[in-house]
Amino acid sequence: MNEWVMNTGTVMHGVFGDPIKHSKSPIMHNRAFRELGLNAAYAAFHIKPGRLKDAVAGIRAMQFRGVNVTIPHKLEVMDYLDEIHPDALAIGAVNTIVNDDGKLTGCNTDGIGYVRSLREEAGFHVAGKKVLMLGAGGAARGVAYSLAKEGAAAVYIANRTVSKAEQLAESIRPFTKSEGMGYEAIEDIRGDIDLIVHNTEVGMHPNVNEVLIDTSWFHEGLTVSDIVYNPLVTRLLREAEERGARTHGGLGMFIYQGAYAFEYWTGREAPVQAMREAVLAAF
Length: 283
Ligand code: ATR
Hints:
InterPro entries: Aminoacid_DH-like_N_sf, NAD(P)-bd_dom_sf, SDH_C, Shikimate_DH, Shikimate_DH-bd_N, Shikimate_DH_fam, Shikm_DH/Glu-tRNA_Rdtase
GO biological process, one term: shikimate metabolic process
Order of helices and strands: EHEHEEHEEHEHEHEHEEHEHH
Pfam families: SDH_C, Shikimate_DH, Shikimate_dh_N
GO molecular function, one term: shikimate 3-dehydrogenase (NAD+) activity
CATH architecture of the largest domain: 3-Layer(aba) Sandwich
Function: Involved in the biosynthesis of the chorismate, which leads to the biosynthesis of aromatic amino acids. Catalyzes the reversible NADPH linked reduction of 3-dehydroshikimate (DHSA) to yield shikimate (SA).
Bound molecules: 2'-monophosphoadenosine-5'-diphosphate
């Protein structure tokens, strides 16, 4: 039997976050490394507020090849890196660090991961489509930017705090037509929408019976996508399905943000199916 064990040549990776105990990233990436027979490993690190700078210095000192960064460190980490990819700079957050012989580059794979999962899993191609986004928080920023860069014809952003929706809409206006609004204004544009993307925590475990907007107007021909993946099928998606809309769950965004990170670190195509199996088995 040829069982892999960690050794002095193992290339190290990890994720920095607080909290981090429930992260599925180690399971996903270690499965990907094993699948391709790479001598590499990935661990979770509980980095408390105030210790991020030291932790990033540790990436250099210990020659980790790559690190994912999650809540609450995605913004602060930008201060400690050598280079920020222009997309991550525009989004204003880094979720992936690549270490090239001590030079640390920050990237953001959340938005491009989302767009890739939409294409691969729902067969939805963003170019030329009109999108309604629900929510304008941290998670929405990468999604909005990537939808705009991918060639969406229009991105409408609805949010409880309208000023945040307007700000986010303005930030992507160099790339596409965009407008911020409150939830009540959805009525005026809903006849014109191809895709709805939900980007808030409403409906997330344990509040699984919550839904953010009226879904009675959802219809066949509409695609409804939720970035929440716990539960895998949210109330929003259930109601969308009942009305004949095509649905797309949030697990794909997690898998494909990881796939891009894996590809940046290893230069190999990510074994997406195995990664998904590993994550689903860990639920
Ligand atoms: P994240 O990084 O997860 O996106 P965030 O930046 O705090 O977190 O953003 C949370 C998003 O969920 C925001 O769009 C927020 O709306 P506001 O900007 O108006 O606060 C939205 N949100 C959270 N709870 C909500 C609720 N009960 N009803 C409506 N929107 C909610």
